[in-house]
Amino acid sequence: MSSQPDVDAAIHPLPADAQTRNLLLFAGCVGMQYLAAPVLYVGATHAAMLKRMESSNFLANSPETVYYFFAFVPVLITALLPSVRWLKPLLTGCYLLAALAAAGVALGVWLGVSPQVLGSAVVTQGVLTGMTIPLAITLVWEAMARGVAESRRGSTLALAYGGGPLLAAVGSLGSGALLNGEVLGSKLWEPWAFPANYGAVFAAAVIPLLLASFFASRFVVAPDATEEPSSASQSGLGLAGLAEFWTNPLLRRISLVTILLYAGNTIVANLTLNTQQAMTSDPSDYVMSQTAIRFGTKALAGMLLGLLVAKTSPRAGLLATGLVYLLAPTYAAFATGLAYLATFPIYGAGELVGVYAPNYLLAASRPRDLRRNMAVANLLMVPAAPLGLVFGAVSDVVGKRSTEAEGYRASFLLCTAIMGLGLVLAWRWLPPRPRPPAD
What we know:
This protein is mainly alpha-helical. It is built from 23 helices and two strands. The chain has one domain: Up-down Bundle (Growth Hormone, Chain: A), CATH 1.20.1250.
């Protein structure tokens, strides 16, 4: 009797060796994204750099905000260029443009441009990263789905998202060494003065992005036998396809819950800046250690949450990550001293809501809608993006009327309230195991 994996492999249009190649390339692309996380995760590094240039909290939050605002680009590009033949060129180009954006900040530092121009370069890097990396994530998942049999996708994801966060921790520790000359409290060398140390961090991110671009160009993608190149509707990404998404009540509810939980994505800049108040230390002293701890915890949490979802339901993963995510700003509102560093492992584990909210969405999707719905999942960051400016403004206003620490605390509690509403709606609205609509 044939097993399901044997049947699955037999019907896949690519041979086993090509699938293995795609499996490793997918893990390589994801791993390089994680290795460049100190720059690609727009927020903490950018906020600390802008704060050193005496920017307001509002401006320090702006790179993170524009990053999320431009998450509409994957939906637009995939709607305009739905054909499979565009997959590899677009994916390769995304990584190249992201590398160029990081190099632009490093070049500005090397040329000694004015603080105003350098600040603009940092914000521009947030814009270009927001345009390219969410689209790259959408496309690299499609490349994996087309290039690897379903029976092998579990091992593919385990390799990519088990090892990936560990590479992010390595990248963060390396970036910390460039910023402060230290790794885990041990002095290695005398770092370059500001802003040359930050320029080195942005320059270092260029290498893994170029490698990701090379990996993307090597995918073997199975052609879509049903695709008509002249018809955008085949992919479900035309205007009618997007309208269809919003007419589904369950998909609308999933989207609202996800937007509310994504409020946590926009509080990281204030979590970093509050280091000055909570620990009486410059945010630059801890920003990379915080990021390393954040991703190290994410690697462990990713394995445990995968087991949870395998034994329970898609909603369980969404609720678990959302609850942990909510605990991060709640804890940060009251923690002081070295205890404040515990904020970042909590936050790192909670960030996996960015995996399990889309996972719930995919569980509620028909196979023919997966590409469209994954693109829309990236779009859900756009409505949450202005919350970063709101949190920055709240901390500025309250800080001027009271103390700076109280300003940050007010922004953390506001974030907690917004995410708490999302969790309540998820519990009340979303079935444990969503069923896709009938064709």
